[in-house]
TrEMBL record:
PANTHER family per UniProt: PROTOPORPHYRINOGEN OXIDASE
NCBIfam families named in the record: PRK07233.1
Family matches, as InterPro entries: Amino_oxidase, FAD/NAD-bd_sf, Zeta_carotene_desat/Oxidored
One term of GO molecular function: oxidoreductase activity
Descriptive protein name: Amine oxidase
Amine oxidase domain sequence ranges: 10-402
């Protein structure tokens, strides 16, 4: 049994581990680890895009345990806040929330009720309703503009109006178990590169893009090699049109990610996550307010933006992007002289946009082509929260589907 896996992100790697007895061949044209790939500095490695996990991420935690990395797991309360008009407001404790000046007491009560109710609601019935419409009708214009709009723009960029209300309700439901002092998050001390390296160890990874997939004599053909089955885990827009046209795939729109990683002499605040209104980035993630400064020897800050693959912002040069990011970082109080370096990372197809009707578009693992499987960001485990856990779970589940179809024990 010869199996090809396209993509060496977490879905591709976890799928390969489940199929290890059959020595699958993995094709990857970029960094192993995908969005979890790391950037090397002198003395440490750090993820190109910010990452953390939650207590309920059982598939990820099981993988960490399986690979002997459980001793590296760290849990901390992550402090969060909002930045409006250049001022940062912490929003963690009940007292901080009560003091927040941009929402009335009645708005805060409405928001608390909405959060509690979301745990019990059937979010699927709101799949065809827009998120802006849903918030406006249920919570009012002020909560929409002053609270949810910065969050939506931080998560989806200019695509926020296309998002389904079902996504928001589902997301609030799974993220509503905060402690009084803030949200508890997990990290792998000194970096997720340890997880990626251990997952990839001993696997047959070929560093080539897969632009063409042939099918004849009941075999799939990639780079002159024959395969009985193919598992595609890369973004759907990269799929060979000859194959894609035969799969009856739904039309799924993708967003792009731009993340600036900044090394600084000083922290910006004492918070981990700050949602930012009216800036080129939607969120500031201060990594060294979460993990020890001593692990890196400098303060590390992520500045995260979301856009579309064909946007002017995504096409902009690293130099021009860096200037724009640093200008907005200065508006929040960071002095330019305290910035040691900045590095820009881009992901053209980082995730689907959870637009209206998306629940009907979630792609199953099996396709109408025998031996051809799909798994990744577009799979059910990555809704409503695209995550490391969802990607690993999708890889495990698609491998189980393949083994069942080919009667592999």
């Amino acid at each position: 049994m010869k199996i090809a896996i396209v993509g060496a992100g977490l879905t591709g790697l976890s799928c390969a581990l489940e199929l290890r007895d059959y020595n699958p061949t993995i094709f990857e044209c970029h960094d192993v680890g995908g969005l979890l790939a790391s950037y090397g500095r002198k003395g440490y490695r750090i993820e190109k895009f910010y990452h953390h996990f939650f207590r309920w991420d059982h598939d990820l935690l099981n993988m960490i345990k399986r690979l002997g990395l459980s001793s590296k797991v760290v849990w901390k309360i992550a402090k969060t806040g909002f930045a409006i008009d250049g001022k940062i407001y912490p929003l963690n404790t009940p007292l901080e929330i009560l003091r927040y000046p941009h929402l009335s007491l009645m708005d805060k009560i409405r928001l608390a009720r909405f959060t509690l109710k979301s745990r019990k609601r059937d979010y699927t019935i709101e799949d065809d309703r827009g998120v802006v419409e849903g918030i406006r009708e249920e919570l009012g214009e002020n909560l929409l503009q002053k609270f949810f709009m910065p969050l939506l723009k931080a998560k989806f960029g200019e695509n926020y109006e296309r998002v389904s209300y079902a996504w928001l309700l589902a997301r609030v439901a799974i993220r509503s178990n905060r402690k009084l002092s803030g949200e508890e998050l997990g990290y792998l001390r000194r970096g997720f590169w340890q997880l990626v390296d251990r997952m990839a160890e001993g696997l047959n990874i070929i560093r080539k893009p897969v632009e063409n997939i042939g099918y004849f004599n009941k075999k799939y053909h990639i780079h002159g090699m024959e395969f009985d089955a193919v598992v595609w885990t890369a973004p759907l827009p990269l799929l060979d049109p000859k194959i894609a046209n035969n799969l009856n795939l739904p039309s799924i729109s993708y967003q792009s990610s731009i993340c600036a990683l900044v090394g600084c002499e000083k922290p910006l605040s004492d918070l981990y996550w700050i949602n930012v209104d009216n800036a080129i980035f939607g969120a500031v993630i201060e990594h060294t307010n979460f993990m020890p400064f001593e692990d890196y020897g400098e303060h590390l800050i992520y500045l995260a933006s979301y856009t579309t693959p064909d946007s002017e912002l995504f096409r902009m040069s690293e130099k021009n992007l860096a200037n724009l990011y640093l200008k907005d970082l200065e508006r929040l109080g960071m002095k330019r002289r305290d910035v040691k370096w900045i590095k820009i990372f881009k992901a053209k197809y980082s995730a689907p946009i959870y637009e209206k009707g998306y629940l009907k578009k979630i792609v199953p693992y099996r396709t109408n082509l025998k031996g051809f499987y799909l798994a990744g960001m577009f799979s059910k485990p990555n809704y409503p929260e695209r995550s490391m856990n969802g990607s690993i779970k999708a890889g495990i589940e698609v491998a189980k589907a393949l083994k069942a179809d080919f009667d592999l024990s």
